[in-house]
Amino acid sequence: MKVVVVTGALGGIGLETSKLFKERGYTVIGTDFADSTDSTFEKFFQGSITDETMWKEIQGYISQKHGHLDVLVNIAGRNYLDQIENAKLAEWRDMFEVNVIGMVTSIKYVSSLLKKSKQGAIVNMSSISAQIGSDGYAAYCATKGAVDSLTKSLALELAPEVRVNAIAPGWIETPFTLDGLQKSSDPVAYRKQVESMHALNRVGLPAEIAKSIFWISSEESSFMTGSVVVVDGGYIVKN
Ligand SMILES: NC(=O)c1ccc[n+]([C@@H]2O[C@H](COP(=O)([O-])OP(=O)(O)OC[C@H]3O[C@@H](n4cnc5c(N)ncnc54)[C@H](O)[C@@H]3O)[C@@H](O)[C@H]2O)c1
Fold this sequence. Notes:
239 residues; binds nicotinamide-adenine-dinucleotide; 47% helix; 16% strand
């Protein structure tokens, strides 16, 4: 039985991804801030992605129950909106703590289990924001730039046993982006503007990102590692 760990497993993209892996026959282990009794998960770990104690428990559970791990999907992430003159350094530090160090922590604790799989894969959640920048979201963009660099270096470090890739989505409809929408002065007009910035003239769905994550973790992409794959409905080409 193939085993996957999904972080941020209760979020918009995380839950769709967990369900897709389950549908495709994987045993799914989830983790997030909140707890879950959803039958999608064989086991759920509640806690912060940055908590080493939790990762030691996850490592111990997988070692004992399965002896190996096939896929780690790092989805947990947060956002912070501010102009640089007003920047709260504690928020910046927490952005890096969650979006980057959290990823480093999960990889540190499960990479030996991934090496035991015949086709281990890590998928890190980046964003096109790392490549295009975003007014007011400098902290977010900087953390996603770090995710891209981390992905490339760890692809070298963990090869050939484990492939490491990142997915960089455009605007996907989840609580994460709806929150940003609500912070704008005219959410309806902003939404229309965002849609028109994508060549496909719409925003993406969490299920569309889940499919890309599944593909890049699977045999179908067996010669890919160190790649940051853009899944953005044509946002970058249009802008
Ligand atoms: N939605 C988009 O348009 C979009 C675009 C590009 C990239 N992303 C990235 O995709 C990922 C998921 O985004 P989403 O849209 O599903 O957002 P979401 O807010 O629905 O989900 C994020 C999940 O991460 C969890 N999380 C946050 N901080 C955590 C922490 N410290 N410890 C444990 N869990 C934590 C949250 O509880 C939540 O369940 C994020 O990394 C985000 O940066 C999203």
